[in-house]
Amino acid sequence: MEPGVFLAALLIFVGIPAFTVLRIARLRAARPQSLPADVAERLEAVEQRVEDLQQELAQTQERLDFAERLLTKARDDRRIGG
């Protein structure tokens, strides 16, 4: 293969894709990493709401456990007394 043809093929199959990858990497690196203020505020509000819901769920589970214990105790008392 002639050197000119080889260099052209090398440029087409290696150089152009490499240039494209480097260009994309630079564009991604140049993107701002921080969130806009309104998005950050909304994210904090969502996180707070999730924490509130987790706390409510934990309280509800405690109440359910308590109710189950009372029902089990009442059923056991009826068996023993009945």
Describe this structure in words.
With 82 residues, the chain is mainly alpha-helical. It folds into 2 domains: 1-31; 35-82. It is built from 2 helices and no strands. The model has no long low-confidence stretch (mean pLDDT 86).
Outline the fold blueprint:
Blueprint: H1 3-30, H2 37-81
How many domains would you count in the coordinates? Answer: 2
Rounded to the nearest angstrom, the distance between the terminal CA atoms is: 101 Å
Beta-strand content: under 5%
Element order: H for helix, E for strand: HH
How does the overall form come out from the CA principal axes?
A: elongated
Unreliable stretches (pLDDT < 50, length at least 5) are none
Helix coverage percent: over 70%
What is the arithmetic mean of pLDDT? 86
Quick recap:
By secondary structure, the protein is mostly helical. It has two helices and no strands. The protein has helices spanning 3-30, 37-81.
Descriptive terms for the model:
single chain; 82 residues; mainly alpha; 2 domains; 2 helices
